[in-house]
Specification:
Blueprint: H1 7-20, H2 23-35, H3 41-47, H4 53-73, H5 79-85, H6 88-106, H7 114-130, H8 134-154
Helix pairs in contact: 2-4, 4-7, 6-7
Length: 155
């Protein structure tokens, strides 16, 4: 986007950020980034099983970012401003990407997390244009963190 955010977009952006500060959501986000390291869909179901605290945390995080990305996809949020300041959603999406289709098939819902997926595709292109190699570097870093986490868990 070559335009500045409107006042309304900036206000909504601040509201989206404000929601991230909610104590319960903050705890869920902390849990997600510390504990959610699936290597498969089966891992995801084990780590964040429905009806468990992990499952609740997982759903809070992904539903928050799905809603924020829906606002973005419908043009209610300014894309450049969102991408410049809200890259966390991409890290969340990267951890679910591998098992997403299997989850969609299992629940017979091909639209599950479609807003986050569409925003992630645009974010990846946006990032590569602005900072070539950033996404590959981030993915490598996340891979190393996942391997380190696996070693710690196995020990």
């Amino acid at each position: 986007m070559e335009t500045k955010p409107t006042f309304e977009q900036a206000q909504l952006h601040l509201r989206v950020y404000e929601e991230r500060r909610d104590d319960r959501l903050r705890k869920a986000r902390d849990w997600y980034f510390q504990n959610y390291w699936p290597e498969s869909f089966e891992d995801s179901m084990r780590i964040a099983a429905p009806g468990t605290e992990g499952g609740t945390n997982f759903m809070m995080v992904i539903s928050y970012w799905e809603q924020a990305c829906a606002l973005l996809n419908y043009g209610l949020l300014h894309e450049d401003l969102f991408f410049e300041t809200s890259g966390e959603f991409f890290g969340v999406f990267e951890r679910i990407r591998a098992g997403l289709q299997q989850g969609r098939d299992m629940w017979n819902n091909q639209y599950f997390l479609v807003h986050m997926e569409n925003a992630a595709k645009r974010f990846e292109a946006w990032s590569e244009k602005r900072s070539p190699g950033q996404i590959a570097t981030m993915r490598e870093f996340m891979s190393q963190m996942s391997k380190q986490r696996s070693k710690q868990t196995a020990a």
